[in-house]
Fold:
Amino acid sequence: MIERLALSAETQAQIYRAWERFLAQGEEPRGVPEPIAESWKASRELGVDPLMAKAPCLPDCDIPSLQQQHRRLLQVSGDILQQVHDEIAAVDTVVILSDSAGTILDMVGNPATVERARAVNISVGGLFGLGASGTNGLALAHALRTPALVVQSQHYCEMLHPWSCFSLPLASRSGHPLGILDVTAYRNIFHPHTLAMLQVLGRLLVERWDAEEARDHTVLREAFERTRRQYPGDRVVTVTRWGDVVAGLPAAPTGWRPILEGGFLGEHPGTFVAVSPLSDSEAVTHQAWPVRRGDDLVGWVLVAPDRRRAGHPAPSSATPPTADRITSVDDLWGESPVFRAVLELARRAATSDSPVLLLGETGTGKELVARAIHAESGRAGPFVAVNCGAIPPDLLGSELFGYEEGAFSGARRGGKKGYFEQAEGGTLFLDEIAELPADLQVYLLRALEDGRIRRLGGTRDIPVHVRVIAATNQDLEQATARGAFREDLFYRLNVVTLRLPPLRDRGPAEVRLLGARFLEASNARHHKRVELTPQAWELLVGYSWPGNVRALRNVIERVVTLSEPAACLSPPDLVALCPDLAHALAQAEAGDGGAGRSPTLSAAPAESGGRRRRGGPTFHDSFEDLLAELGGNVSAVARRLGVSRSTIYRRLKHMRN
Structure:
């Protein structure tokens, strides 16, 4: 097809007559290339109107969502469409990028031709799949997975007869369809150079995509390694958004197709019950977390109990990072760019012996980061944590530096090692360093400068090989300025400074990610299946979290502890269990004004706190309405409510009983 770039006037007339007879009498197309003839037949079977005035088109309000869905393709296409058009240098030509099904994503051309094309909806949002607009280049390229040339009257719809198009399907190195690159001309004939140049630039676009996909795979492999350490004994796999396995199992994309097509894997963390290559032909509960690189969803990491292990299968170990489980910086939870940047600095700091100063609000995880730095450093000695604000000032000196026998009344026989000596060869973490009394600041400075300490009541210096990490939620610079903290000690501690971002600065997606993991962990500990409605998640996302990650974890633990085993909690339920969230709920309701609110926002679950609410609709009522509205489609109901299908089945069982 590619070699036949022009049709004589006689051939065009012959094809047009064949088209008329095919439509009017159903006559078999003669003198028409076989792919075109077969496509005409398929168009007729699909009910396409050959005399439509213009192609179908998405509503304007849906176009931003379409372009967001294909943001990666639009990004890598960059200036390629304009390069194609500049190379063609033809006035009556437009260059098109569509998705793999023929929906136009972007288009360039001179204004007059673009306006002429828009008259028949050859424009962004235009639908040129076979079932929408009949035979055309985009539809043929999609159907045949090969370059397709459709010239004037070969189109099925008469509105396209003035146009000719050459469409090049694009596929990634892994074989997945990306989209279609197309040149469409008005009453013009293509030069062979045009088609060759289009193929060259199409390969450039695919190379850019493959480079981005390689970076995605790196992120997915890193997610696999982190998750495998967090879930020892369970089966872990990372898959791309196409369903290709990146790590954890031999490549078996078809095994994940039902999972993808069933809508189990979404934009937010969750659980689902299904048979997968992880579950050995047995339906089990999987945990799933989306993996992102920047703003792009690149795949998922999934965890399921390993049924093949000998003995009793262990429960899913959805345990948050704790002191005894941190083996590296990667064990810390968080995917936001601002938090990952801090962790990258922490990883670099771990390779040196310099003091580290951790700054951040209460609850941002300073001790966990300190433990991760220690673990990453490979130090053989222990990690010793000291809260300088929790020890009485008159005892803190002896606790830090130790004492000799007889140093004071009641001193232990033989004396006692202080925290510095206990941390020999390891890391000493001094939390709330701003609370260190002024007289002890001198001794700490000496320990940092000389690597030596002297016990209380002692006469000899003791060498110590200890890495010091200090932390505070106060402004040490201000404390130094007002004389509450020694300036020389501040500068000695301030060699490597990490500022841990508050949860509110880590973004809504981070609150969802951490909240979902804490929820999964708490459910596992309490043997429950508590879930939150989408509106409840929005309430948590909208809260300012002055207590940061620690507060989020405590709220999740509280609601799971106090809820029924299979509760599905709405915003009022959260407020009833955690009154601190009342202000956030009031703000959400004030912003909504009460109009257009989803029934589940103001309605409580039928089971919450062991009772049904009086007055107003219940979750049971709104659930029945939604089920009826969606024709009993359980998957659709689950997607609308933002819960797993297993939750819907449990509700149905409860209603029937």
Remarks:
- The two ends are 64 Å apart (CA to CA).
- The longest strand covers residues 177-186.
- Residues 308-319, 592-622 have pLDDT under 50 and may be disordered.
- The chain is about 45% helix and 15% strand.
